[in-house]
Amino acid sequence: MPAASAFSDFVLLLVSAAPKLGLPIDVVLRDAALPPAALRQRGLPISLSAARQIWSAAERVSGDPLLGLHTAETLDVGALDLLDYLTRNSTRFGDAVGRSIRFAPLLASAGVLSLKVVGHRAHFRHFSQDGVPAVSDLIAGLTVLRARTFSGEDIRPLAVRFRHRRERALGEYERIFGAPVEFEAPFDELVFDRELLDVPFRSADPRLCELLEECAQARLEAAVGAAGAAPAAALPGFLDEVRQALRNCIADGNPNLDRVAEHLGMSSRTVQRQLREHGTSHRALLTEARAEIASRYLASQNPTHRALASRLGYASPRSVSRALRRP
Predict the structure, then answer these.
(1) Rounded-to-5 percentages of helix, strand, coil across the chain
(2) In whole angstroms, what is the distance from residue 77 CA to residue 178 CA?
(3) What residue ranges in 173-290 does DSSP mark as E strands?
(4) Parallel, antiparallel, or unpaired for β 181-182 and 159-161?
(5) Residue 311 has what pLDDT?
(6) Cα 34 to Cα 39, 61, 231, 259, 324, distances in angstroms
(7) Which positions ≥6 away from 45 have C-beta within 8 Å?
(8) What is the largest CA-CA distance in the chain?
(9) How far apart are CA 280 and CA 271, in angstroms?
(10) Extended strands (E) in the chain
């Protein structure tokens, strides 16, 4: 993304974890400058400053200096939506890390993630100039904990470093990471033995991962367009009506513009014009709808690429990839 941005998913992570953490989320969100839909809809552009404010408020209200780590422990698989399913179905730990870096902007793009291999060491780094400590802890915690869950192996870094200052309960960091932890470093960093990047994931489904990558890329492109469109607060109910019509038309197997306009009781030309006025298009919303349907389906216990294709109304998995590239 050309500029730092954030999306509603970044806040919904905290909302999802709040009940288990005993966090009064209403208090945390009381002064947040969020559009109402941000607590219901994924992929909605929100102010980066508002997202940071919410995570900082959560740290303060919870009284837990390790809120980010405890959030990482609490989040069920699927809370990160496509990011979770992409990493779960990756073949190796290294592939999962690469996809996390590539699609992290689906949550927020304020920080820079990178993976660098030097000799026998792999360095996974995160840097954010104005980062929130809880978010740094969350990223590091999720990376290690998800790797253990998906591989079935006790993956441990050789070293863990954070840019923020040391907080209380150092033992909690060491308990979670199983490695020495340093603070006030130039950037957040997990250092692994290079060979760990080749650890296979037992949950891998390469073909499903390929389809999910198409979904994630489509959502990323749609999110980039949405971030540059009109402010979310200015979008009236028309877009919601179009989205619902698209869902209905996808279920019927024909989501083209004429069919959507028919559902809305409008002409195709009028629908096109109003979509342009709202800074979007039939193609962009169709891509968004398909990605949404796919990601919702993935919340089932045993998703497969063939079942995913069926849910989207296509005869074969290959058709899903084609459909996500063009309406």
Answers:
(1) 60, 10, 30
(2) 21
(3) 181-182, 188-193
(4) parallel
(5) 57
(6) 8, 18, 11, 33, 30
(7) 5, 6, 7, 8, 223, 226, 227, 229, 232
(8) 64
(9) 11
(10) 6-7, 45-46, 112-118, 121-127, 159-161, 181-182, 188-193
Strands 121-127 and 6-7: unpaired
Nearest Cα to 208, choosing from 76, 77, 84?
84
The first and second tokens of residue 10, run together, are 């970044």
Enter the tokens of residue 126: 């995160």
CA distances from 89 to 16, 105, 142, 222, 325 (A): 22, 19, 16, 23, 21
Q: What is the pLDDT of residues 220-268, one digit of tens each?
A: 777 666 555 444 333 346 787 888 888 888 877 788 898 888 877 778 8
> What are the residues whose beta carbons fall under 8 Å from the beta carbon of 60, sequence distance 6 or more?
none
From residue 255, alpha-carbon distances to 60, 219, 294 in Å are 46, 17, 15
C-alpha–C-alpha distance, residues 14 and 206, integer Å: 30
pLDDT digits (tens, 9 = 90+) for 25-77: 999 998 887 887 888 888 788 888 888 899 999 999 998 989 999 999 999 99
Nearest to 157 by CA among 147, 168, 170, 171: 147
Of 79, 190, 72, whose CA–CA distance to 134 is shortest?
72
Residue pair 263/303 in contact by the 8 Å Cβ criterion? no
Paired tokens of 157: 């870094």
89 touches 80 (CB < 8 A): no
For the entire predicted model, the pTM comes to 0.72
- Spell out where 103-179 has E strands: 112-118, 121-127, 159-161
Element (H, E) at 285: helix 282-297
* 195: number of Cβ within 10 Å: 10
- What tokens does 218 get? 């489509």
